[in-house]
Amino acid sequence: MSSGFVFEGLKMHLKARGMTYADVARALKISEATVKRIFALKNCSLDRLDVICQLVQVDLAELARGMPRENRLINRLTREQEEELMSDPALFLVAICALHQMRVDEMVELYQLDEPQCVRLLLRLERIGILEVHENNRIRLRIARTFSWIPEGPIMRYVKSQLPDFFGYPFDQAGELMRMISIRLSRGAQVALLQQVEQIAREYSEQHNADARLPLSQRQPVSVLLAVRPWEPELFKALRR
Predict the structure, then answer these.
(1) Angstrom distance (rounded) from CA 85 to CA 82
(2) Spans of all domains in the chain
(3) Tens digits of pLDDT across the chain (241 residues)
(4) In whole angstroms, what is the distance from residue 205 CA to residue 141 CA?
(5) Which of 40, 44, 124, 232 can pair with 48 through a Cys bridge, CB separation 3.0 to 4.6 Å?
(6) Alpha-carbon distance 55 to 70, whole Å?
């Protein structure tokens, strides 16, 4: 398939979502050089085009309409919007399901929701601004690649309240890992470490998008907690001079 406007439109949507050719390469499981060649020649298979469209959450009809408005993509909700999510457990659940790129029928199958209730909650999320609901209840997220919850906001306070449940576990099964590394670093090395942690978070967010094409039964919920800060246990602090 070859069509100039399609690939120019894809470039615009990649830019709007803060994505690069490297992100496309990971989604397609090919080299970045091959991706650059695809965009230079404006030619690729329909299967690959479908993967790229899903990565940026756009369809061919929207590509034909041209440039996405970057202000449609949000980096962070307001405190009031997060409070609204936390005020209704079902609303919060559907928001997380949508972020997990689950369809309405998958939400209904997995949780105690019926389709009308699920759609009503999605429409509330559309009003909040986190997503759009399209024909046949198709969901399109409106979040940028750099989206994050407010530090010490309602969502992160809830997450912290769940840490005893998260850590009250041996982490000894296949696919699980817990490591605590205590080190002393220069300021420059700390900056480099934070950049590496951010890169890990971005890579697995992109893998999440790439795996969205798979059936839900093949996609397990996985929580990755990344945290870096200067810290010393109170036990040690009590022994300081």
Answers:
(1) 5
(2) 4-71, 79-141, 171-241
(3) 446 778 888 888 887 777 889 989 988 989 999 999 999 888 888 888 888 888 887 777 667 665 555 456 888 999 999 999 999 999 999 999 999 989 999 999 999 999 999 999 999 999 998 999 988 998 988 888 778 899 999 999 999 999 999 999 999 999 899 998 889 999 999 999 999 998 888 888 878 877 877 888 898 889 888 889 998 889 988 988 8
(4) 14
(5) 44
(6) 16
Measured CA to CA, the distance from residue 150 to residue 75 in angstroms comes to 10
In one letter, which amino acid is 208?
A: H
Which residue type occupies 64? A
Q: Which single residue is written with the structure tokens 């695809």?
A: 38
User: What secondary structure, in 3-state letters, does the chain show?
Assistant: CECHHHHHHHHHHHHHCCCCHHHHHHHHCCCHHHHHHHHHHCECCHHHHHHHHHHHCCCHHHHHHCCCCHHHCECCCCHHHHHHHHHCHHHHHHHHHHHCCCCHHHHHHHCCCCHHHHHHHHHHHHHHCCEEEEHHHEEEECECCCCCCCCCCHHHHHHHHCHHHHHCCCCCCCCCCCCCCCCCCCHHHHHHHHHHHHHHHHHHHHHHHHHCCCCHHHCCCCCCCCCCCCCCCHHHHCCCC
Q: For the domain covering 4-71, report its CATH number.
A: 1.10.260
Task: Give me the residue label for tokens 């890992």.
Answer: 177
